[in-house]
Design brief:
463 residues, alpha/beta, Rossmann fold, 3 domains, four-stranded parallel beta sheet, 40% helix, globular, disordered N terminus, binds guanosine-5'-triphosphate, binds magnesium ion
């Protein structure tokens, strides 16, 4: 057993702190087997947002629309929304306290169990709001975590989601004042005079440490796999984009991958890699991975580092955009924001404006605006040949990531690698300095003698 928690769900039976009798269980964390939301019935949810200072009203609207989709995906019904304009958030309650009372009345009118805020709430704000609203107050982060928890299927995916959930829960323990298990801890964990809260907190911290340790192992395995791939001369292309843009459909269309496609946010949480042959005969590794949204919670991005490594290390990103979306440029900005956050902003990017079958004019117009972009339909196959050709062209002209081993007496070569390339990773062992560097073809040629020799089997990620 070691550090493992017992399997019983966490906090399901606890009464709401204020004793209010609402049906909603949305807001309760249920551990690995249970999401945030009670799907025994569709909870009714009021959406609340704050437009701060000079925020663009269209963007605020787009963000609220997206929140409505997120709530729907999580399995609940958005029944009303309320927006407040403020210069700055209220420290205690995010919205003004008068507004909070209005939101309570609106929730009563609509018989809503829960209010979801479009902005990240501090644990204190969440607690204060629940006291005023007399029902659960959640934020966007909690909803996204809930969807992720429902969709995670692989071990790595589940581990990453649980880690993000627990990190979210930890500072919120005090607020709830709820005991999350009568049998917490067991022998040896409950010292004299120790409160349930401390026991809960210690258990969660122990579990977090265990998950972090597991992820280090997963990450090392992935790194070994990607290193083996890199030893073949095949280059690595990652499909990125807004959730539901058609990334998995595109991977399936271009390779024989059999990745789950669904009209649902965050259908994919794991990375799947397949070999793809370009028209010139050159082979590349193509990877499909998790999609992004606006205001993707930082702790989730942090927790998904393992899955997102492949994006950071790619030679080229194919950025898939749903051309029939309401605000494709807002989607693009959201994706670029996450790419910056994970340190992938310098990886060359090729736009694929997808779903051209639904709106060919919009797709063509969007593709015309971005250098080298292609309009495609992953469903009909239209434009795919152009996309393959574009990938080949971009790879030939762009920098690639290579592994170098530079002997200690070749400081000049080390300096050259730093000067001409972007060093992603540097360490040393008995053979010399080991680097992973992004270099253009000219520099690859100049440093060719230091390229790491390789062999070994190529291991593909399991689907
Ligand atoms: N009409 C049309 N629908 C498409 C196209 N590509 C994908 N779709 C649909 O869009 C929805 C989402 O497709 P996915 O491939 O699952 O999208 P994704 O980007 O992988 O989404 P996540 O994994 O959830 O982030 C599905 O209903 C697809 O059938 C396309 O070219 N045309
Ligand atoms: Mg997908």
């Amino acid at each position: 057993m070691g550090d493992d928690l017992p399997e019983e769900p966490i906090g399901v039976d606890a009464e709401p702190a204020d004793g209010a009798s609402h049906r909603g269980a949305f807001g309760e964390f249920g551990g690995a087997n249970r999401g945030l939301i009670d799907r025994a019935f569709r909870e009714r949810i009021v959406l609340a947002g704050v437009a701060l200072g000079r925020e663009d009203p269209d963007e605020v609207d787009a963000s609220m629309d997206e929140l409505a989709r997120l709530v729907d995906t999580a399995g609940a019904d958005p029944v009303a929304r309320m927006l407040q304009h403020r210069d700055a958030p209220d420290i205690a309650t995010y919205v003004g306290s008068g507004k909070a009372v209005e939101i309570r009345d609106l929730s009563q009118q609509h018989d809503a169990d829960t209010v979801v805020f479009d902005n990240e709430l501090t644990p204190a704000q969440q607690g204060n709001l629940e006291t005023i609203l007399k029902r659960s107050a959640l934020d966007r982060t909690a909803v996204i975590l809930d969807i992720f928890a429902q969709n995670a299927s692989s071990l790595a995916g589940r581990t990453q989601v649980e880690l993000a959930q627990l990190r979210y829960r930890l500072p919120r323990l005090r607020r709830s004042g709820r005991t999350f298990s009568q049998q917490a801890g067991g022998i040896g964990t409950r010292g004299p005079g120790e409160t349930q809260l401390e026991v809960d907190r210690r258990r969660i911290m122990r579990r977090i440490r265990k998950l972090e340790k597991d992820l280090v192992g997963v990450r090392q395995n992935r790194a070994t796999q990607s290193k083996r791939r890199r030893r073949t001369s095949n280059r690595s292309v990652a499909i990125v984009g807004y959730t539901n843009a058609g990334k998995s459909t595109l991977l399936n269309r271009m390779t024989d991958a059999d990745v789950l496609v669904e009209d649902r946010l965050f259908a994919t949480l794991d990375a799947t890699t397949r070999r793809l042959e370009l028209p010139g005969g050159e082979a590349v590794f193509l990877t499909d991975t998790v999609g992004f949204v606006r205001k993707l919670p930082h702790q989730l991005v942090e927790a998904f580092r393992t899955t997102l490594d492949v994006v950071v290390d790619a030679d080229l990103l194919v950025h898939v955009v749903d051309s029939s979306a309401l605000d494709p440029f807002g989607d693009i900005d959201a994706v670029r924001g996450v790419l910056r956050e994970i340190g992938a902003e310098d990886v060359p990017e090729l736009y694929a404006f997808n779903k051209a079958d639904t709106d060919p004019v919009a797709a063509a117009r969007l593709a015309a605006r971005e250098e080298g972009a292609v309009a495609v339909s992953a469903v009909t196959g239209e434009g795919i040949e152009d996309l393959l050709a574009a990938i080949g062209r971009r790879l030939r002209s762009s920098a690639r990531v290579v592994s170098l081993v530079v002997p200690f007496d070749r400081g000049d070569a080390l300096a050259m690698a730093h000067r001409e390339g972007e060093v992603l990773d540097e360490s040393s062992d008995e053979h010399g300095w080991r680097l992973r560097v992004r270099l253009d073809e000219g520099s690859v040629g100049r440093l060719a003698e230091f390229a790491e020799e390789g062999g070994g089997p190529i291991v593909l990620d399991s689907p």
